[in-house]
Amino acid sequence: MNTTSLALKLHPNDNVAIARALIAEGTVVSEFDRIVVRADVPAAHKLALTHVNAGEPVLRYGQIIGFATKAIEPGDYVHTHNLEMAAFERDYAFGEDANVVSPAPTPVTFQGFVRADGRVATRNYIGVVSTVNCSATVTKMVVEHFSRNGALDAYPNVDGIVPITHSFGCCIEHNGEGVNQLRRTLGGFIKHANFAGVVVIGLGCEANQMGALFMAQGIETGKLIAPVVIQDVGGTRNATDAAIAAVESMLPVANLCRREPVSAKHLTVALQCGGSDGYSGITANPALGVAVDMLVAQGGTAILSETPEIYGAEHLLTRRAASREVGQGIVDLIKWWENYAEREKGSIDNNPTPGNKAGGLTTILEKSLGAVAKSGSTALMGVYRYAEPITVKGLVFMDAPGYDPMGATGQIASGANLVAFTTGRGSCFGAKPAPSIKLATNTKMYSRMKDDMDINCGDVMDGEATLESKGKEIFDMLIRVASGEKSKSEALGVGNEETVPWMIGAQM
For the whole model, what pTM was predicted? Predict the structure, then answer.
């Protein structure tokens, strides 16, 4: 990459370039026919390269990111004041670019925990899961008991006690889609490979009855799955004591688990981006895409998600669909979200957020094109509902809103045992029981927030790394973290408050 250039043109057909740093009004940009900049262009924002008439498309990545609201001249600053989203036809071209990769010539292993059913974990936690918000306090009291100094010293192979709490579980239809989705989500956590054992705590009178939850999700109680119902055992203190006793009985069993070498095919990585900026689609996201391609070549799985954040770029995924059915699954999700936004009198273009826009992103089309880059280049093998168990290997898509904790919650419930999270503004996200690594899109933010960021992808923009080398760095860190190395968010203790199920249906 040319480190002296003021702006980057990402595709030959683009009519905008991306500012590497602030380009002041009056600056002559020699690499683009000596264009004179007509207004300050902030870092990561867009500089017009050609004349664009009102109503004509503006192109980035060789794709439409919106339409000019008025005439744009070479050297103009292009953003919300002269660019807007509008509907246009897309060529879905189902499966035309489906790339089923060959297995990697050199198998990669990591140090994982092999469960009795053959699943592989990256962490060895005991979980305490609430069926309803009304049992969240007891859940946290149990976890606080084991957070005291020395409480787990006798169990060095146990990574900790994790609370899974949420704000739902009652005043919903007892057999409706809302409670079914919640049960699917909680069931995914209860059965997650990263939990050696789980205590499930209910109130007793909630709509999300524990018996119905267990039956719907095929969960059987036993030595490592213990139910506690607050009303049945005599209230808050008794329930807390009972749950503590249940955890104590699980600890010696969980401590018997040992890490051992296992194939990287057992890794399922949730792909997330939050607090994105204009560099996200240039540095961190495509670098993560390189890592995803490497993981898929090892037989592993990557979960792309957040349906509103592929909006406008869905045709890139349908072209990569392994079958027409898979591609149609993406189209059906897009149509559902269009209808949903219309019904709720909202706009999908409400995303990007104010922070995203301050970072250089103007429309959801632009954000989505950059977001899809983190999925790499391999075939899309499956499309899943929120929190639905992933049953195929390779790149898959799971339906979810664009709210990062909500999306990651569904991905973890679906079986993700790692999270890879790109950010340009500085998201302080963590996840449990799946460790999360944070990938910074720009060096300035990385330097400011080193305690939260695991890898700086800004050096791609700085000319000090390539997407290929950075992708390898990300992949290597995924292997290290899967093997037990703590990510920055883990070291900070982030992740206990980030479980946010997607609650649908009427609340009554």
Answer: 0.96
